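yo

u said u wanted the structure for the complex thing, so here. seqs first:
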Amino acid sequence: QKEVEQNSGPLSVPEGAIASLNCTYSDRGSQSFFWYRQYSGKSPELIMFIYSNGDKEDGRFTAQLNKASQYVSLLIRDSQPSDSATYLCAVRNTGRRALTFGSGTRLQVQP
Amino acid sequence: DAGVIQSPRHEVTEMGQEVTLRCKPISGHNSLFWYRQTMMRGLELLIYFNNNVPIDDSGMPEDRFSAKMPNASFSTLKIQPSEPRDSAVYFCASSFQGLPGLAGGIYTGELFFGEGSRLTVL
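structre next:
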C-alpha cells in the first residue's frame, strides 16, 4: 500500500464547476497535510496546508481533513481553465521533516 | 527574494558519465531536500539535510548516488556512474523547520521547490 494515494485522473470538469480532489494516507500519526499544484514542466507550488480536522478555506480553494478516515480533499470552486494542472497531496509523517507525496491527480478544466 | 536555485536546468549525458546537480536553498532555511520525479514513480524523496547534516538518505537508490551540503547555502547531488534509468527531473526544495518565534505566527514547514534539473542519460 502506498503511503499517500490519489486517483491519477484525469479529472475533467467544465469551467465554473467545482472540482473535488481526494487523497488518502496510511500513517495514522501524520500531522500535517499539504496540497501542491504542478503545471506541466514546472515545479510544485503550495496551494494550501491543513493541520486540524474540518475545513479550511482560502479564496476558491477549500481543504478538508478527516483524520479518523485518514482522508484529505481539496475543493476548487468556480474552476478556471488556468486551474488545469496536476495536484499533489503531501503528508508529513510522524517524526519526519520531509513530505511524502502522492502521485498526483491531473485536473482538466474545459472552457 | 530569490527562491531555490538549481543548476543545470537541463543535462544530457551518456551512460557512465558523472553528473553533478547543484542547489542553493532560500536564505534562512535550515532544511534541504532532494526529490526525484518520474512518470512511473512520481515525486520521491532521495535525501534531506537539517542544519547541513544528512538526516535521512534512505531514498538514495544506490551507492552511485551521493549528496553533500558543505554549508547552509549550497548542496550537490552526484551520480557516478550515471545510467539511463536515472533519467528524471531532480528537484531541490528547502524549508524552515523550527518552532514559531516569540512574535507568534504559523510554522508550516512547507517546502519551496526549485525549478528542477531535467536529466537525460543516453
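The interface with chain B takes residues 32, 34, 42-46, 49, 88, 90, 92, 96-104 of chain A (CB under 8 Å). Chain A has a mean pLDDT of 94.
cya
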